[in-house]
Amino acid sequence: LEPHIDARTMEIHHGRHHATFITNLNGFAKDAPQIAAKPIPEILADLNAVPEAIRTGVRNNMGGHANHTMFWQIMGPKGGKPAGEVLAAIDRDLGGVEKMQNDFNAAGGRVFGSGWVFVTVTKDGKLALETRPNQDNPMMDGKRALLGNDVWEHAYYLKYQNRRADYLKSWWNTVNWAKVAERYAAAKAGTLAI
Fold first, then answer.
1. Half-sphere exposure of residue 50, counting CA atoms within 13 Å on the CB side?
2. Are the beta carbons of 141 and 59 closer than 8 angstroms?
3. What are the tens digits of pLDDT across the range 73-97?
């Protein structure tokens, strides 16, 4: 993803931060096997069914796992431009690519502390922008993320330090729009999981 996101950041981000979510979830699953038995969207959509003693841990770690799994899927070294149905939906619901990117970047810049900025997608293909604190995920409200960017400092600090706006702007060069199109089609088919 160089020069937009440096390799060292991605190594730490994936190999330490995301790996910790998996390790923690495996620990929770030892005491509450239902966590491993149910699909992630089902658990995140009904966190009240998770035992109270581990609910916050599951929320944070499963949300983080879901967010990062999506994040890795939608990035690639060539970037590109949206096309086809995704482009039509962006034009229709978000005012075009440039407006969407500007609004997305502004929303991500307004996240206080740590969190995420997402483009969500409904089963009928409607798009919307939203932010979430910490590792919260749109699935917690029965929604799906079409794409999203991590605005925790660990995602950008080695290269961008406190310049989150520069990171957000540069990140668009890594979006793999072919994968986003696959996610859009899966959302419309009702099969988009994470």
1. 26
2. no
3. 999 988 889 999 999 999 999 999 9
Q: Which residues pair with 121 in a beta bridge?
A: 127, 144
Q: How far apart are CA 180 and CA 141, in angstroms?
A: 21
Alpha-carbon gap, residue 10 to 188, rounded angstroms: 31
Residues 52, 130, 112, CA angle at the centre, nearest 5°? Answer: 75
Is the pLDDT at 31 greater than 90, yes or no?
no
CB 110 within 8 A of CB 131: yes
Q: Quick check: 194 and 69 in contact, CB under 8 A?
A: yes
- Angle, CA of 27, 32 and 36, to the nearest 5°: 75
Both tokens assigned to 68: 């990062």
What CA–CA distances, in Å, run from 18 to 14, 46, 148, 177? 5, 22, 15, 23
| Paired tokens of 126 | 């409607």
Q: Give me Rg for the CA atoms of the chain.
A: 16
